Amino acid sequence: MDISLMQNIEKALKDSLPGHKAHMEMAVVGHHRKAEAPGKANKAGVLALFIPGENGCTELVFIRRSSHYHDDRHKGQIGFPGGKKERVDSDIRETALRETYEEIGVDPVEVEVLGKLSNLYIPVSNFLVYPFVGFVRSRPKFSLQETEIAEVITCDYKRLLNYDCRNTTKIELSNGIHLENVPYFDLKGKILWGATAMMMAELVHVLKRV
To answer: HEC profile for the chain?
Structure first.
């Protein structure tokens, strides 16, 4: 793991963040707009996790959610590991670490948290998401929560800095609705769109400061 890179990311996260402006680069037109989360919004913590790549690069970790649950509005989608805040969590940072452990088996003790990105409210599921950024020094052996997670996807972070990996496509939602001209990141042939793509767009801005 390139520790100097991680230190520089930590410094960059302490500067002002682009927030909504960056989010809108990857927002679905007409479906995402700047909205204040209601007081009763559910809280979720997610983790953008950097790991050592098998070929010496530095990778980011994504998960593809299971399609088992009929009422899950995000089933089958790719995102950062994480989930809903529970009463056992002392704070939302702990939520992100606990959920990452439960979903893909990365021990919270091994994760060094560098900071966080801007919060993002998702009206369709009424979640206010708190995205944290962290890293582990050794490549983890993933252990999937099979009822929740279909697969782990890793990608060299440098690939995501290249605008050639961004495109638009048509997306069919689980309720049969089609969305046109949806912006997405191409994760080696897999489509990263929606809220996580919006958070990733902000992380790209941070990484370009490094």
So the answer is: CCHHHHHHHHHHHHCCCCCHHHHHHHCCCCCCCCCCCCCCCEEEEEEEEEEECCCCCEEEEEEEECCCCCCCCCCCCEECCEEECCCCCCCHHHHHHHHHHHHHCCCHHHCEEEEECCCEEECCCCEEEEEEEEECCCCCCCCCCCCCEEEEEEEEHHHHCCHHHEEEEEEECCCCCEEEEEEEEEECCEEEECHHHHHHHHHHHHHCCC
pLDDT, block means (10 residues), the chain with 210 residues: 95 95 87 70 96 93 77 73 94 97 96 97 89 97 92 95 92 74 92 95 95
Q: What is the pLDDT of residue 118?
A: 96
Q: Delimit the domains of the chain by residue range.
A: 3-157+193-207
CATH of 3-157+193-207, one of 3.40.50.1100, 1.25.40.10, 3.90.79.10, 1.10.10.10: 3.90.79.10
Please tell me the pTM assigned to this model: 0.91
**Which pLDDT score is estimated for 75?**
65
- Give the pLDDT score at 41: 87
Could you give phi then psi for residue 199, rounded to 5 degrees?
A: -65, -40
